[in-house]
Specification:
By secondary structure, the chain is an alpha/beta fold. The protein is 37% helix and 16% strand. The protein starts with 15 loop residues before the first helix and ends with a helix. The structure holds pyridoxal-5'-phosphate.
Length: 443
């Protein structure tokens, strides 16, 4: 690993060179494109981001769950270098190449279920979700799509409609795509009658709302994140996903698992659905798939994926050969280094420390997640009232000490942790020390 695996603070965060670049950014880049922490990165690897001022920050974000194999992971780098020197683009729809087919084979093998599968490749998560909906509609001849409270599925027109949160994703960007219906999520921490009956009551509400407001026979697909990402790392109450999936099967409705954030070893399994034994009809992947190169996919039952007429799916860049080579390098890394086991180990280290932190600070209302996809939800002590002010103070204190943490949540009150799965345990525990210090100093 070329980047030393030690935190190093040479300047305040952000330092002078980053501040200069941020001034250029503000003058050149649309203000609609925000930045969580304006330190400008020059190189990164393992659990470290190095910036233009020579600071080295501990990475608890992985570029939003993307570089699970680490930044510039050796197998990804060499696969990309070889591919980029051979050819960079032909368009798979014009003259194809093996790398695309090989990625599809890997996806068909690795995703849940032993049934016959097919895959199609795209550029971004939102594009994969759009295509999953196209496939489900085409295959069923139905139009309605059911999505959940707190869902995040992207920023294109159809995926904005599927996304639940107004600010910043939807505000003044309408009108949105039609035939989207929203139902409650089985969110244990905020379920009105408490967590015990959450799965059962949420499922009853789901069934009743779809029946009365949409009609089962009008529904093409139900789309759900097995652990919700931007919505705040909400883990649906145990059993809920299984009930929804089997109800979909009864009614000929396509069950789409959006594993764009939770997939590729992040939660301690290759895919988060596996934890509940749920086999989706279609699964969308992106983020962790290619070690940082833009790639996304829809994988699913052959009879659904092959229902679409030739030429009905695709795009100029979808399954670009360089991105495919990166994906093959990333998947090989996950297999060789057993990164799903690493995610479990990260949980084993982090979870007890987050629980201890919650016992000490009553602003922490909930600790949740699985594997290396963990979060704390902050509230006014003793209540369920969201506490975004405390979250912002803790996040800022972490950033000042050189720990990159991300935030999330419908109410802007969740700190989420997504370390690269290859992070060293010394860095992981130093990051947790900083987090503990941030709670002590900021609150
Ligand atoms: C990030 C994300 C998307 C959108 O992916 P992009 O590549 O940003 O378009 C969709 N669904 C989930 C669950 C995500 O986390």
């Amino acid at each position: 690993m070329t980047v030393p695996q030690h935190r190093l603070l040479k300047t305040e965060i952000p330092g002078p060179r980053s501040r200069d670049l941020q001034a250029r950014k503000l003058a050149a880049v649309s203000s609609g494109v925000g930045t969580t922490l304006p330190v400008y990165v020059t190189r990164a690897g393992g659990g470290i981001l190095e910036d233009v001022d020579g600071n080295r920050l501990i990475d608890f974000g992985s570029g939003i769950a993307v570089v699970s194999v680490g930044n510039a992971a050796p197998r990804v780098v060499s696969a990309v270098q070889e591919q980029v020197a051979d050819f960079t683009h032909t368009c798979f729809m014009v003259t194809p190449y093996e790398e695309y087919v090989a990625v599809a084979e890997q996806l068909n093998e690795l995703t849940p279920g032993t049934h016959e599968k097919r895959s199609a490749l795209f550029n971004s998560g939102a594009e994969a979700v759009e295509n999953a909906v196209k496939i489900a509609r085409h295959a069923t001849g139905r139009q309605a799509v059911v999505a959940f409270d707190h869902a995040y599925h992207g920023r294109t027109n159809l995926t904005m409609a599927l996304t639940a949160k107004n600010m910043p994703y939807k505000h003044r960007f309408g009108p949105f795509a039609t035939e989207i219906y929203r139902v409650p999520m089985a969110y244990p921490f905020r379920w009105p009658t408490g967590p015990e009956r959450c799965a059962e009551e949420a499922f009853d509400t789901f069934v009743s709302q779809v029946h009365t407001q949409v009609g089962e026979s009008n529904v093409a697909a139900v789309i759900v994140e097995p652990i919700q990402g931007e919505g705040g790392f909400i883990v649906p109450a145990p059993g809920f996903l299984r009930s929804v999936a089997s109800w979909c099967a009864e009614h000929g409705i396509v069950f789409i698992a959006d594993e764009i954030q939770s997939g590729f070893c992040r939660t301690g399994d290759w895919f988060a659905c596996e934890h509940e034994g749920v086999v989706p009809d279609l699964i969308t992947t992106a983020k962790g798939i290619a070690g940082g190169l833009p790639l996304a996919a829809v994988t699913g039952r052959a009879e659904l994926m092959d229902a679409v007429h030739g030429g009905g799916l695709g795009g100029t860049y979808g399954g670009n050969p360089v991105a495919c080579a990166a994906a093959l390098g990333a998947i090989e890394t996950m297999r060789a280094e057993r990164l799903e086991q690493r995610a479990r180990r990260i949980e084993a280290v982090m979870r007890p420390r987050l629980d201890a932190l919650a016992a000490k600070h009553d602003v922490i209302g909930d600790v949740r997640g699985r594997g290396a996809m963990l979060a704390v939800e902050l509230v006014e002590p003793g209540t369920l009232t969201p506490n975004p002010t405390a979250m912002a103070a803790v996040a800022a204190a972490c950033h000042q000490q050189g720990l990159v943490t991300l935030t999330a949540g419908t109410y802007g009150n969740v700190l989420r942790f997504l370390p690269p799965l290859v992070i060293g345990e010394d860095l992981l525990s130093e990051g947790l020390d900083i987090l503990e210090g941030a709670f002590a100093s900021a609150l």
